[in-house]
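go over this record:
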Amino acid sequence: MGALRRLVDADTGEQVPYAPYAFSGRHTQVDKARVEAITESKAFTPSQKFLVLWWIGVSPEGMAPLRATGADIACRVGMSTDAVGKINRKLVKHRILVVRGRIGNYNLYRISPYIAFHGTGLEQREAVKTCNPPDIPGFNEMTPARWEAQ
């Protein structure tokens, strides 16, 4: 078990360098076109774009919400609780964040599975059935790269 596995190129018979999987822990599938559209959109402020990227990184596996209040999030990202609340509400309005529960009167959120998902492809296919696609100003669902893949 402790021996290093040797990989060999099938065509040349030469040894192929082995590199372990490069991610440190969990990772997420991300729709790069949607993230690009969000980060380039003039409809979102830099703080809103930052929180989108933060939500991609912290959203739990599957469709579970992040179990954190606005105050918890504000402390983690260095913003005021009011700013986080306003940003989260705007991201929900655009269906970039989805509401997945409550703690008292505070909604629990996660990133839309259309934007990022941690789980199998089959699980993601089921997850997108539970919510509508995000409304991202400037994002065109019908670019050739999108409709040719369908």
The chain is about 40% helix and 15% strand.
